[in-house]
């Protein structure tokens, strides 16, 4: 019985030590992930909007539907934005869709369309253009200039200058009243339109549809937060929002993230029409109009606001390919035909009651070690250390194998017939356990640790992509959201366990006096260091977090 207890104790003690070490590693990585900051606690929105009427109708000057009164004609033209140099190079042109009503007896108002981030071709607004033209309005839709526009770099002031060329084209069209030419700006375009209006006082009106109003950084964080909450991700995963959207990069990278449109709104004194869909999670549907109202010089007398029940970001019911709400296009047409009469008739705010839970506010920046370029440097350096470690480990093992072969050959030659390779006793000193350097089980342990860490990184990346797809499609999937989260945490614990085992084996290795042994051991520790860097990065983005 005493012998049995002793054997059990011998087994339990190493296992308990390993278990405690794994627990300590998991808690340490979890603490690093949580404390690395910043935290995410968006402030609840206390303000609300009370529409004066549930009807979204805009009476305008006639009080009746305008769409369909005229036949229309369409054409595409090329418009030069930048003239070529003396050698005929460097010129930039864009395609413009012009849709005009047929049979007008008087000069008509015109609308120039400004794209959001998701559209770029002139035909993107063809549905809107056809509807407005059939109401007696000339619609001018240019393609977005893309040679100076990318995910990482864009300049809203420069974009306004490009759209100004289309604005001049619209004013010069036969049958257009140049004093009644205004702008229709959707989503991101609503940052550009006030700039264009401030620089061009002759702009007659602004239609800001699904307008963010707050800075791009604030809107991005707000949208991601709303989407992730709608998908139902674990609360701890939300801390990734400021870590991703709050990062500050060199001046030429994401240089538009903190663009503030309010100074341009303050210089805009023309009638403004704003529209939102109540199912648009990406926009601050309550806060945005309040900011506009507090910025424009004319206050409420300058602004008309409509909320469309169940409509999405594009003022459509359903997907981006479904038709635009007819009531929206009809109201827009009535307003464009006579904005001042529409304001007089009112009401200023009408439609469904919007719901905005949190403020779109300033995003706390990450700390220096995870901000901007450091966000990329840490994992890249970790990968580099990992590769160098494996190269050193492989080089050391190869050197050891070569040395063993040479020693074996020397023994065989020196002993002659009295000792050959067939005599096992003569080779004990060569092949025995006292040869310093990593054993095969250590290499296997490092490979297992590497595989588990790679699985954590890949599953984390796949989880982020899967959640993003669900969010963008306004979908939920408990198996993906929670099953993927539990899988990620399980793999993280497995990686920690394999890491503890690898470290314990490394600690027990004697490097020996030869250079190869030292290189081998250093390679093993570099592998561990690189993998620890990758696990720390994964912890920063959500691994090693509580499941709920």
State the helix count.
15
Number of domains: 2
The main pleated sheet reads as:
9 strands, mixed
Which consecutive residue ranges, at least 5 long each, have pLDDT under 50? 423-438
Span of the ends, CA to CA: 45 Å
Written as H for each helix and E for each strand, in order along the chain, the element string is: HEEEHEHEHEHHHEHEHHEHHHHH
Architecture overview:
By secondary structure, this protein is an alpha/beta fold. It folds into 2 domains: 2-37 and 370-541, no CATH class; 72-228 and 260-351, Rossmann fold, CATH 3.40.50.1820. Helices cover 48% and strands 11% of the residues. The chain has 15 helices and 9 strands. The chain has a 9-stranded mixed sheet, sandwiched between helices. Strand 3, helix 2 and strand 4 form a beta-alpha-beta unit. Helix 1 (2-35) packs across helix 14 (478-507). The chain is elongated and about 105 Å long.
Short account of what is shown:
With 548 residues, the protein is α/β, with parallel strands linked by helices. Helix content is 48%, strand content 11%.
What is the secondary structure topology, with strand pairs?
Blueprint: H1 2-35, E1 72-82, E2 92-101, E3 108-114, H2 126-134, E4 138-142, H3 156-172, E5 176-186, H4 189-199, E6 206-209, H5 216-231, H6 240-245, H7 262-265, E7 272-277, H8 287-295, E8 303-308, H9 326-337, H10 339-345, E9 349-351, H11 374-415, H12 428-431, H13 440-472, H14 478-507, H15 515-541
Parallel strand pairs: 3-4, 3-5, 5-6, 6-7, 7-8, 8-9
Antiparallel strand pairs: 1-2, 2-4
């Amino acid at each position: 019985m005493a012998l049995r207890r002793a054997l059990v104790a011998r087994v339990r003690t190493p296992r308990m030590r390993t278990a405690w070490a794994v627990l300590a590693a998991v808690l340490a990585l979890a603490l690093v992930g949580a404390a690395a900051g910043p935290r995410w606690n968006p402030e609840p929105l206390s303000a609300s909007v009370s529409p004066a009427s549930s009807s979204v109708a805009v009476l305008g000057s006639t009080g009746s539907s305008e769409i369909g009164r005229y036949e229309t004609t369409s054409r595409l033209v090329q418009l030069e934005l930048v003239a070529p140099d003396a050698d005929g190079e460097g010129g930039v042109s864009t395609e413009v869709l012009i849709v005009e009503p047929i049979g007008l007896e008087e000069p008509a108002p015109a609308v120039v369309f400004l794209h959001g981030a998701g559209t770029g071709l002139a035909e993107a607004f063809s549905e809107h253009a056809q509807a407005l033209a059939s109401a007696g309005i000339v619609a001018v839709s240019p393609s977005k200039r893309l040679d100076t526009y990318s995910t990482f770099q864009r300049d809203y002031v420069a974009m306004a200058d490009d759209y100004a060329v289309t604005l001049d084209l619209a004013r010069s069209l036969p049958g257009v009243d140049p004093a009644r030419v205004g702008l229709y700006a959707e989503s991101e375009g609503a940052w550009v339109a006030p700039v264009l209006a401030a620089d061009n006082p002759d702009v007659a009106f602004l239609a800001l549809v699904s307008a963010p109003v707050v800075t791009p950084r604030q809107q991005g964080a707000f949208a991601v937060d709303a989407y992730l909450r709608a998908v139902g991700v674990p609360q701890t995963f939300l801390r990734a929002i400021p870590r991703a959207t709050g990062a500050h990069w060199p001046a030429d990278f994401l240089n538009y993230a903190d663009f503030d449109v309010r100074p341009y709104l303050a210089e805009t004194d023309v009638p403004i029409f704003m529209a939102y869909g109540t199912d648009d999670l990406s926009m601050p549907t309550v806060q945005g109009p309040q900011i506009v109202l507090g910025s424009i010089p004319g206050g409420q007398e300058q602004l008309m606001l409509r909320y469309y029940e169940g409509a999405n970001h594009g003022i459509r019911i359903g997907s981006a390919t479904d038709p635009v709400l007819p009531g929206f296009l009809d109201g827009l047409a009535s307003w464009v035909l006579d904005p001042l009469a529409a304001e007089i008739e009112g009401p200023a705010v009408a439609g469904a009651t919007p719901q905005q839970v949190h403020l779109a506010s300033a995003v706390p920046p990450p700390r220096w070690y995870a901000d901007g370029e450091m966000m990329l440097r840490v994992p890249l350096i970790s990968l580099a250390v990992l590769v160098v470690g494996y190269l050193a480990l492989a080089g050391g093992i190869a050197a050891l194998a070569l040395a063993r072969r040479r020693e074996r050959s020397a023994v065989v030659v020196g002993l002659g017939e009295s000792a050959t390779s067939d005599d096992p006793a003569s080779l004990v000193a060569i092949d025995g356990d006292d040869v310093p350097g990593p054993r095969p089980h250590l290499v296997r342990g490092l490979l297992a640790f590497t595989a588990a860490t790679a699985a954590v990184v890949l599953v984390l990346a796949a989880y982020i992509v899967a959640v993003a797809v669900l969010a963008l499609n306004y979908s939920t999937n408990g198996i993906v959201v929670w099953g993927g989260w539990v899988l990620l945490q399980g793999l993280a614990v497995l990686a920690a366990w394999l890491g503890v085992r690898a470290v314990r084996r490394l600690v027990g290795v004697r490097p020996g006096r030869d250079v190869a042994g030292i290189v081998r051991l250093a390679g093993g520790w570099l592998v561990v260091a690189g993998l620890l860097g990758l696990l720390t990065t994964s912890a920063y983005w959500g691994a090693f977090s509580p499941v709920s």
